[in-house]
Amino acid sequence: MSFFSFREETDKSTPHVVLHRRLVIIMETQAKADAEEETNMAAWLLGIKNLKIQPYHLPPLGPHHVKVQVKALGICGSDVHHFKTMRCANFIVKKPMVIGHECAGIIEEVGTEVKSLVVGDRVALEPGISCGRCRHCKDGRYNLCPEMKFFGSPPTNGSLANKVVHPAHLCYKLPENVSLEEGAMCEPLSVGVHACRRANINPETNILIIGSGPIGLVTLLAARAFGAPRIVITDVDEHRLSIAKMLGASEVVQVSTDVQLVDEEVARIQNAMGCDIDVSFDCVGYDKTMTTALNATRAGGKVCLIGLALSKMTVPLTPAAARETDVIGIFRYRNTYPLCLDFLQTGKIDVKPLITHRFGFSQEEIEQAFETSAGGGNAIKVMFNL
Fold first, then answer.
1. From residue 282, how far is each of 44, 261, 307, 383 by CA, in Å?
2. pLDDT digit string (tens) for 103-142?
3. Residue 384 · residue 72 · CB < 8 Å
4. Which residues contact 326 (CB under 8 A, 6 or more apart)?
5. What protein family does this chain belong to (predicted)?
6. Positive or negative torsion for Cα 174, 179, 181, 186
7. Residues in a beta bridge with 70
8. Bridge partner list, 329
9. CB-based contacts of 143-148 (< 8 A; 24+ apart in sequence)
10. Pairing between strand 149-150 and 128-129?
C-alpha cells in the first residue's frame, strides 16, 4: 500500500484537504531534492586557466548506479593539458566541462538493482563508461570503445565535485587497509599495470623507462611488482630521478632535450643497465624519447609507447624493424582495478610517496592546485581532499 493510499483510507479529512496535503508533501520533497542538488558543487573548466566552482546538477539515480561522495581526487597530466590549452591530443574542450577523473569516495545512495555495494562503502571509481556493444567491448578491449564516456574527457563531465553518479560495476570497494587517496591512485597506477601486461613484463625482463613523471613512476612501481629484475629510468630532472631511485629503480640516468646527444645517451643508458634492454617504456612521447627507446632496446625486444605528447613523430623506424623490435602502444587501461587494489592491499606497491601536495576544495585552492601541478618542479601527484 502506498503512502498516499494509506493516508486516503485513514484520513477523515475532506478530499480537497487530503489533496492539499499531498501537494505539500510533493513540493517539500522536490524542494529537498533541489536543495541537495544546489549543494553539489564542481570545478568547471570555462576557458584556458579558468576554473570556477559552480553548481553541478546530477542525473537521476538509475537502478544500476550509485551516488558517490568524492573524497579524494588527483590531478592527471591530461587535466593539466586541458587546463593550459583546452585540449589533450585530439580531445578538445568546446564547452564548459567539469574536470578530473582520478577519484575515490564513499557511497551515499545505491540504485534499486545494486547488490554489490551499500551506503558507506569506500570505493575507487574507474572513470570510463564503455558502450558494451561494439566489437572492442565484446572482445574485452573496452578501453578502445569509440563511444567511451570518460570522466573529464570532452565532452563528458569529470569528477572534481562533491558528488557524482556512476555505474556500480565501475566502483571497486576498497580493502580496509587502503586509504581513499590510495584508491584514487588506482587510476594512474592502472596505466602502468596495463603497460606491463601489454609488454609481458616478468622476472626475466630488463626494463628501460624514459620519463620519471607520475606515469613513469607508476610504471616503475608496476614493473617491480611484476618482477622485473633491473629497471633503468631516465629524465631531464634530477629531483624526479632521486624519487625514482627511492622507489626502487636499479639505476637512473639524467638526459637532455638535445636530439644530437641521442647516441651518447643511449650508450650511457645501456652501460647503466649492464645487460640487454628487453623492453623500453616511453612515458613522454617526443621524437627524441622514442628514438632513444628504439635505439636502446635489444634486437627482438619491445618498445611500448605510453606518453602521447605529440600526435606525429619522426623516428628511426626502419632500423628498428630490421632488428625486429616490436612497437606497441597503450591507451588508458582495462580490467586493472582489482589487481591494483591487490598490489596496494598486500604492500607490493606503495603509491603514498608519489603524493607530494594536498589541497582542499575551495576556489582559491583549486587554482593553486592546478598551478602547482602545471608548474612541475617538485610536484609529482597533486591531490584534492574533499
1. 32, 17, 6, 25
2. 999 999 999 999 999 999 999 999 999 999 999 999 999 9
3. yes
4. 301, 302, 303
5. Belongs to the zinc-containing alcohol dehydrogenase family.
6. negative
7. 105
8. 305
9. 143/194, 143/331, 143/332, 143/333, 143/334, 144/331
10. antiparallel
